[in-house]
Design goal:
Elements lengths: L6 E8 L12 E6 L3 E8 L3 E2 L8 E7 L2 E6 L19 E9 L2 E7 L1 E9 L8 H4 L5 E6 L5 E5 L1 H9 L2
Parallel strand pairs: 2-11, 6-8
Antiparallel strand pairs: 1-2, 1-9, 3-7, 4-5, 5-6, 7-8, 10-11
């Protein structure tokens, strides 16, 4: 008799590159497909920085006349980007997330594609990684020794609305 599993598709992205954070390079952020509005590439200068905003909020982006908050999830807990001063012409990838609470853009390093995940294998995020992935509801083992952190989009958006 076949075993029924709770398999769901997620979009897998990389937040931490090997050059920036070798200890986190094998972790991936798993975003529910239904929470993704679109994926865009823009020049960094298109994001308008705002003074006095909390860590992690990079600024706002004017996307077809709509202002979108842009976050760098690596910076939420004050983690330092070791690359130095950003290049304004640098092309960056933003995943636009949506839920009933609104829309937000998240900077990502690399798009890894769609992956099927068995949610019955979901475990609590390891204690050392909880500060790096504060908006994740759990983790999964992925291929090649990688770990997938399951993003809770509603939690991320409610955090942004509370600031």
């Amino acid at each position: 008799m076949a075993t029924i599993t709770a398999t769901t598709d997620y979009f897998q992205v990389e937040l931490y590159s090997l050059a920036i954070a070798p200890d986190l390079a094998q972790t991936r952020l798993l975003i529910p497909l239904g929470d993704i509005a679109e994926i865009i590439t823009v020049e960094r200068r298109e994001i308008c920085p705002l003074p006095g905003v909390p860590k992690g909020v990079t600024g706002v982006l004017n996307l077809r006349g709509q202002l979108i908050w842009v976050m760098d999830l690596r910076m939420v807990q004050g983690q330092v980007d070791r690359r130095g001063r950003p290049n304004p012409q640098e092309k960056i990838t933003i995943v636009l997330l949506q839920s009933a609470n609104g829309q937000i853009g998240c900077l990502v390093t690399t798009l890894m594609g769609i992956t099927a995940c068995d949610l019955t294998e979901l475990t609590v995020v390891d204690l050392p990684l909880q500060k790096k992935y504060p908006f994740c509801m759990g983790q999964l083992a992925l291929a090649h020794g990688n770990r997938g952190m399951l993003l809770d989009t509603a939690l991320l958006l409610s955090h942004l609305q509370s600031i």
